[in-house]
Design a protein that fits this description.
202 residues, mainly alpha, globular
């Protein structure tokens, strides 16, 4: 059961990080509209492949810090800071005028998805803050195979979410501004609450 839970934890984490319409998922939508669902899925697969690496880097960093008691308190502080920065980021995104067009891409869509995902600077701090929070609260076991299962779940969750954007591309395009604004406010509130909970438990 613990194995399934860690896989599920990774999937949920990916959904939290990528749920709001942004550069990656809206590019998947535009690629689908212009080139078809298969092209959108190929782009999504490339973008998701990088999530494995980003989650791995964050987990290795969090695991190293947690194994050193002298920096464990600093680790919790770092997670709190990340949560409040994420809350601010999503709040500002909700306040901005949302551009639902995405980017028109030609060429090897799998590779393009990888490159665009790799330049997502928010991913590693996001996974670092979230995995630290999960570990501190005893939900994430920083041992194998649990770490690998969480990473697999993160990559799988991101792919599932991108594919949902692909299959609902028409609906999302029409309602993208409304969806983006409301989801960003929800995510902002969620990360603000996680930051407060982390402070109260520290």
């Amino acid at each position: 059961m613990a194995y399934v839970f860690h896989l599920f934890l990774g999937i949920i984490s990916a959904f939290l990080g990528l749920l709001a319409p942004g550069m990656l998922n809206m590019t998947a939508v535009r690629t689908t509209i212009e080139q078809g669902k298969r092209a959108g899925v190929v782009f999504s697969a490339g973008a998701s492949a990088i999530v494995f690496i980003q989650a791995s880097i964050a987990l290795v960093f969090a695991s190293y810090l947690s194994e050193n008691p002298n920096v464990f308190d600093n680790l919790k502080i770092a997670a709190i800071i990340v949560f409040f920065l994420l809350a601010l980021f999503f709040f500002l995104q909700a306040r901005k005028t949302f551009n639902a067009e995405g980017k028109s891409k030609k060429g090897n869509l799998f590779f393009i998805g990888m490159v665009m995902s790799a330049i997502n600077m928010l991913a590693i701090p996001f996974y670092f803050g979230l995995t630290t929070y999960f570990e501190v609260n005893g939900q994430l076991i920083m041992e194998q195979p649990y770490i690998t299962l969480f990473i697999v779940g993160s990559g799988l969750g991101s792919f599932i979410l991108f594919v949902l954007y692909v299959f609902f591309a028409g609906v999302i395009t029409k309602r993208a501004k409304f969806i983006a604004t409301n989801i960003n406010y929800i995510l902002s509130g969620l990360f603000f609450m996680l930051g407060l909970i982390a402070i109260l438990k520290s």
